[in-house]
């Protein structure tokens, strides 16, 4: 896309329709527009085939509303605001009345995909306390036109619970595993399914869990190959990885 | 597979061909055989569709040879020994004369896939010092029937080098990015390709790189979504993730 | 138990009372039931001979009530909710009016054992500030039918205080030692008693105590052998270890 | 300056105008005056050519007002109070009615330089969430008579946004780059400009960002040479470094 | 023992057989003898009912021989030297010709118990690379008259391997689980057995295993209760905990 | 004292005034009394010649009052409660109406020494933000009959301020240096005085100060010998070290 | 430069001298050439005005020779190889017979600048043990046409040594301060000079210096503003920052 | 001393014997002489009353010889070289034939004090493995004219061993406690003596001792007040603190 854009610009120069200096200027300015405080990257979706996200913390509701409005001004795919508040949701409703709020996850979803899902992702949560992060992953995955199979409360302390869902784990195109405390679940799951496993450590725990560090290290050192890991509490990121896996496939 | 195995066992019980107590015994013993010192998991390939690996450190050449011999006794897919030595390679040659040794990576490859590659994986290395880990990833990926596009020495300090290979990054089904020191490359790459990016931090660096910790943290905190991370220096693991992405696709 | 269950299922298949496919289905589903958000592991008590616990943080009172109700629906041993709130206690009272709340510890106890204690556990606390965690251990131990000898405020700064209780330490079947700050007490205690010592670091302290990390490291490096360690502030876990020690004995 | 002061004192001794013992006393007391609780260093500006700063945290508004009053009693350059509150601002207004408050940054500016700027500093912020720290840097730089070119929201996830501002980066005498999360931006910027790059990690992020540690390590390990780093969230410090760069030049 | 010793001393004082000042002197000197460089604690066995250990690192072979000779001069239980070398073994043979050397573990065993084992301990190792530490645990346990059931190579990546040995795990009086890398095995084992689980993290791994820290944190955060943890690579300590569990039982 | 107590007890046994078994009992119980929740160590002052302290955090006002009452029931030296609240002070006033509260430090002082000071301690604070910890040190030192020379706001950024007080630093018998942020002051001070320097890192700072860790490490690595370090924010502990230095001297 | 290159390319397209598709191709390939294993960034010097560096560790002498040869093939500024060996130096001599080796620093210098120095940089080392890193900085600075004033062994433990060189510190255009152990020197220096201070922590020290981490944290938290910090042992990087400061000036 | 020196200089100026500019020059140069690579601080002893030390690591034998020769050229107190090698000792013998080498500690002692000891210091080592560091402390203390009472192998695992030496601990003017692993000994000792306790953590241990970090944290968090801590393995520093304590006293 970028390339063809550049090529047609150069064609226009060759045909004398656009001056060389104007073309130089346009090339320099191509991929961004400028809000003053936020240089919205409206071309990133074209480059990467995926939705835009606004990371909530440290931004005022007014800033979130402005960035959202700018992004929604041009046609495009889904837009998410993550780790945000009900106040930011109210502000976003001004510019996107159809926006949905996933409460425990603090996720705002706008313009979710309406395409039929082409692939299934299992989202596995080790414990009930891990549900908010699992729900962030699910909201994101569904916005990206993935079909989600939610599998909750299957911690390794009762490993039969994991075995009981083995067929569903094998049927998924990708498996997202959300776990806090010891973070041992992805290693067991990866031994039971041929699908790629995206592991999400959560900050659930206390004492020597050190805010999710223990779970993160466990997952990085998992003996079973086929696991990769995202940031602590990053359900959004795990779902985007899953969406890229599927998108990559559907391009063929 | 497992399930059908269990069902035929149960059918045999129903038909009276196998006693209930014998079936119970078989169910208990189903998935493993026992070497005394190593309980080789010959069924894992069936469960996960991927090759077996022997992790080299802490094992004697004799132990590696024994485990390799046991694994090669039954038909199956590729076998790799990682982070190992020329001595272990000599020992493996006893039981697998066709074994290949990838020297800088310390990887032994036995019984690589002979299927035609169905997908292409770009393996990107930030600097020349990161090549051994990139080569571990490449050897693994090729053993798993993936076609590899190697892209070396494209660190972010000269970001034009990354842009220059943008088309190849966009063409890949998955991108493995290997980087030490600041580990910033995967975040730039993920903004340029729609493919899933598997990031491998390396232990290359000094001082505050803390053996790869700095690169690991950078990758986990990457602003561009679509990145997941494996352990420091784990080129093998990144390739298996890529192989699972492709294998998952080809099952459809 | 599991095994005999499986064997009688297989006998039923052999007798033709149950179809093979039904048996396969039952085997798959055996160990868990499904609440939607929490896959309660009602068989774990059978496998491990110990009570169920609901970890409080990150769960709403309503979720805790639902999980408690499910667990109490079948007969069984004690149920504890740990590190929880008075609000959660109020919710649990709806389904277990006899539930008891141990305030400083934030522990809810339901259905404590009514068996006579078969063994004595000394619960030693280094300082008054460590009492809440010691009380979590005591509540758990008593719910598991252990007799508790509480020994409080015997820090190593006045080592004569420890020596003064030497006889009680020697009389216990297991000794739980709860200590924050320098965490030095278990090392002294283990030199004075032949009983296994379960050490509980607490988060009491400031500055370089780093939330209990200092005490944890001290205990792991204790010179006196015979000490093992649980997570920071995990009085519950220490008591379960003690209960397993005794339960293991009484099986003989 | 110090030296000439000492030399004129010694001349006075040589001329008999000042007694040797008085001179010894004066030499000992030279550089400070004494408030009782704060030994204000009124000579530091002479020694270092830069403004005085009051670090806000841990000081009461009354203490801040007293220190400010003492500093403003003698003629001098700009005075800043950093990381402080609206309450402290109200207190400072008592002694400096013209003081300005930069709200999101929590910075009070008194007696800003009125000289014409002799140099331009680009202040680059990776994301909107990093703006408060960027504004601390901007307020400080402007108080020190630097011209600021603010460049916001140019994170590496959309590297074209960085390239689009390449000319402005090359035109600056120094570039301050403020970035949280992965902190990768300074490494890309330093590859695009010949100016010295002062990197400011911010505490923006979550999970494995560990309060800015991840960004800090990334910046210290940046592959592109020409980067130096200040403390997490230290926009003030980065601006002083830039001011010293320019001041050093203008002394020639 | 101590108490009765003191009481008979006091009786002798009461009977006038011993002067009060002599008794005071004896009380002060009671528990130790003095080698000059090592104050051997010959009374510790009486106080704790367990063998003496000489920690090898940092001691010369000559020092180890001297301490061993002193300890063997009085009758007593087993003596172990841990994490030591073949050179130290040669030195110990001078004073204990029957000493045995467990090579991979670097453990010297002198005067092992000849009592019949009263209890069985399962020693479970996750991988072949963890065997040296498992062997340190086994050598120690056998010296303390425990019967050992060794269960090797049952990592969680193939969880069926763990399930296949479930009966042996349930039959043990205590289970020692030795695991490096992700350290996830104890959490799975504790869900399958009612016995107390003593977890030993090993330093096996690379990258983000940080010398066993990852495995240690995993085990401390294990979701399954009933686990306690010893220091990284401390197979000796785990076996002593197991021996105390059994010794405590047999005192009844 | 202890020894003479034991000797007179033994004399009484020798004279038949006390039965041997009673004496054994008394020996066991000698050094402590028992409050139920706090085993007050009334003999520690005799053993160590210093005041008792109640560490405030984690204790209720009622608990603090009870422990204080017990300690004040017998004659003795000063009693301090550290890091506590105005509520605890109110409770202590019930049992010690003359108690004094040092507000910013959160220190309660009861029964301060009325002896004339025999030695002078300089308490140096790097910045105004470090004053609360310096005041904890001063209140403790004065309660222990030390004369305090307070020297505030002499940070190394203006090293002339430190040199200006060189004579006072040289005149002190011990120097306590309280510093946060970079913690560099003790290293400079120790080069200017022959007195022992007790360094107190404070938690003042932000970003990479990591709650005082940076200052702590600086002080431990100080190039100037003659410095020893106490816990972060432990002004109390530094003063007790100073008091021991002086007390040790006055015993001669 | 880049821009004018692009503009002349576009002019050629406008004049029909170059086909649009060829121009697109050239634009894509502009900034790099390709060695197969190393994508040498020959345009970086143009973009940043500074020399190229080859980071030694992890590269074979043959790889270093190849990269050096490629870089020296086109005219340009200085080339350095850092943290390398005598073997690599021998290899580089093949392609650059005039190369110089700075032994303790392990630095190879090729094609140093022959311009007259336009500015003076003071390179201050706290102790003799810090000299190798100071020499890496000096070799780099001199290669970049800076005049170096070396000031060695002026640690803060004898602060008069620092004051004695105050005039030289004030005369420099930039000051590089190299210090290990407590890393306190830059904070003192920055209070004595108006020049920007670039601080280099070294790994000199032991125990709680943690390989330079203590010095790094001290420098990041320095109270004196005007300091920025590079990686531990990064003398090269500090000199490049200094060179950029001067280069930036000389562009005016 | 310094002051009187300055005053006589000023008197000379007043008398016209020295020109003001010469005096200014001398004042600037007063406290140091310049070796080129090492600015030996010959006045520090006068300022601090203590010996000079050369920190061995990172210095060549030739550098150590030169610095030693310079220091020995003027009369003065003891000189030590710490953590050095037999090679450096050979080099020092060239300039100080009477130098003594304490082998396990790697300490060279030159010109030890010949004054009669005025005070006694107890040096307590927890285990035989801690002896080298204890010997560094002893060699330093004896060089500074302190009488040393060595007390070895009294770890807290056998707390009676500590109690047995209680009288010697109470008799000392200062107590140095050297301990690795759990570092618990100083806390017990400080409860038994009124003397100031200087704690030295050692790097003895393995696994979670993290090179002495565990012992360091234990000591910083010790419950018994009266303890201060020096760097890991810093026996030299502890002895200098003890010498300052005594020196401070003898000045009265």
Which features does this protein show?
homooctamer; 4-stranded mixed beta sheet; alpha/beta; 9 strands; 252 residues
Outline the secondary-structure elements.
Eight copies of one chain form a homooctamer.
Chain A: H1 2-14, H2 20-29, H3 44-48, E1 52-55, H4 61-73, E2 79-82, H5 86-95, E3 100-102, E4 107-110, E5 120-125, H6 131-143, E6 147-152, H7 159-164, H8 166-171, E7 174-179, H9 185-190, E8 197-201, H10 213-220, E9 227-229, H11 235-250
Parallel strand pairs in A: 1-2, 5-6, 5-7, 7-8, 8-9
Antiparallel strand pairs in A: 2-4, 3-4
Q: What structural class do helix, strand and pairing data of chain A support?
A: alpha/beta
Q: Give the largest chain-chain interface (CB within 8 Å).
A: A-B, 46 and 46 residues
User: What is the overall pLDDT average of chain A?
Assistant: 85
Number of helical elements of chain A: 11
Termini separation of chain A (Å)? 17 Å
What assembly state would you assign to the polypeptide chains in this entry?
Answer: homooctamer
| Helix residue percentage of chain A | 40-55%
Number of strands of chain A: 9
Q: Report the sheet with the most strands of chain A, covering strand number, pairing sense and barrel closure.
A: 5 strands, parallel
N-to-C series of helices and strands of chain A: HHHEHEHEEEHEHHEHEHEH
Rg measurement of chain A, Å: 21 Å
- Strand percentage of chain A: 15-25%
């Amino acid at each position: 896309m970028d390339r063809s854009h550049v090529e047609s610009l150069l064609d226009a120069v060759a045909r004398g329709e656009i001056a060389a200096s104007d073309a130089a200027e346009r090339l320099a300015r191509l991929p961004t527009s400028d809000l003053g405080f936020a240089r919205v990257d409206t071309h990133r979706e074209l480059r990467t085939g995926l939705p835009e996200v606004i990371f909530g913390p440290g931004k005022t509701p007014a800033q979130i509303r402005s960035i959202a409005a700018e992004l929604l001004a041009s046609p495009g795919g889904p837009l998410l605001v993550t780790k945000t508040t009900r106040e930011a949701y109210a502000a976003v409703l001004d510019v996107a009345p159809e926006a949905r709020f996933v409460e425990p996850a603090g996720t705002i979803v706008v313009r979710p995909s309406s395409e039929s899902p082409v692939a299934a992702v299992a989202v596995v949560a080790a414990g009930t306390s891990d549900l908010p992060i699992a729900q962030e992953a699910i909201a994101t995955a569904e916005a990206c036109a993935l079909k989600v199979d939610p599998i909750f409360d299957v911690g390794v302390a009762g490993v039969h619970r994991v075995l009981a869902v083995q067929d569903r784990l094998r049927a998924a195109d990708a498996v997202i595993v959300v776990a806090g405390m010891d973070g041992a679940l992805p290693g067991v799951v990866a031994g039971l399914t041929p699908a790629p496993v995206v592991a999400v450590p959560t900050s659930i725990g206390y004492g020597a869990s050190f805010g999710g560090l223990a779970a993160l290290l466990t997952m990085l050192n998992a003996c079973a190959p086929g696991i990769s890991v995202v940031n602590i509490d990053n359900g959004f990121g795990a779902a985007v990885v899953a969406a890229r896996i599927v998108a990559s496939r559907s391009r063929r």
